[in-house]
Amino acid sequence: MKLRHALVLHKSSTYHHYTTQVAKAERPAQTEIERFKETHDRHYECVETVVSALQRHKIRLTKTERGRLKDYHDFDLIITVGGDGTFLEGARYARGQLLVGVNSDPKWSVGKLCAATAQTFPSFLEHILSDSHSVQFLQRLMLRAPQHDYEMHFINDILVAHSSPAGLSRYVVNIDGQAEEQRGSGLWVSTATGSTGAIFSAGGQAMNPESGDFQYLPRELYRGWGSGQQYQLTGGVLTRSAVITITSLMDSGMIFVEGSHEKILFPAQSSVCVRHSPYPLHVVRQ
């Protein structure tokens, strides 16, 4: 396979954050800073290993930190260097390109979605160039906000909730025409890949990561309002043809996409639609 242009997407280290962006009085103890420095060094050594491997094969590359680039149309290979959070960001903006997750420090990061390390990436690249690699197709969900002409494809999960963790989340959820107003701590919607994460901890089901089905689960539904209030839409696995529409009843609503880095304001009367994405993720595996 001939690679035209590769993107190296990497995280900024915790050490960098605490030593350049946080006031000295607010920094952790020196022992913690030293630990952060060790993983910082391993991370950037891994970034350089990835860059050097690409350069040896004379592959054009662009290197950028997370959060700075959202248009990936110019790349045919996306390499994320960090942990699962960096992989998830790369996965949101990929459109048919190959994606390789490189865990830059397995001693620190879980890296469940990452298939390579600094030691194994050069061989991964060789397999790609010789067309001897394997590809796993992971299904995504598509989030659309029609009134804002906004669209996103995600591989993990979203949480619809009040912007404050202590605030009451109020919304109307509609699944294939069955609508219900709910009050509680928010609503998870997860892909099969994301089903072993937060939604599982909240009581959801683990699923085959290659399944096109997806899952929803309200959090801590409030049952003290109304006379004999009985909720019907209390969670479960949905087929890939299902459509969830969520309408906010919150002045300060928020949609958290795959954690806290990507947030979408969700004020009252705003609606979003979640359904199966027609664009699966092409992930390079061993």
Q: H/E element string?
A: EHHEEHEEHEEEEEEEHEEEEEEE
Radius of gyration, taken over Cα atoms and rounded to an integer in Å? 21 Å
Assign the CATH class of the largest domain: Mainly Beta
Proper CATH architecture of the largest domain? Sandwich
* Number of beta strands: 19
Number of structurally distinct domains = 2
* Spatial shape: globular
Q: How widely separated are the two ends? A: 16 Å
> Which spans of ≥5 residues are poorly predicted at pLDDT below 50?
none
CATH topology of the largest domain: Tumour Suppressor Smad4
Indicate the structural class.
alpha+beta
Helical fraction equals 10-25%
In a nutshell, what does this entry contain?
With about 290 residues, the chain is of the alpha+beta class.
Topology overview:
Elements: E1 6-10, H1 14-20, H2 30-56, E2 61-65, E3 77-82, H3 84-93, E4 98-103, E5 116-117, H4 121-129, E6 134-138, E7 141-145, E8 150-154, E9 157-162, E10 169-175, E11 178-184, E12 186-190, H5 198-201, E13 214-219, E14 236-238, E15 243-248, E16 253-257, E17 262-265, E18 271-276, E19 281-285
Parallel strand pairs: 1-2, 1-3, 3-4, 4-5, 4-19
Antiparallel strand pairs: 6-19, 7-8, 7-18, 9-12, 9-16, 10-11, 10-15, 12-13, 13-14, 15-18, 16-17
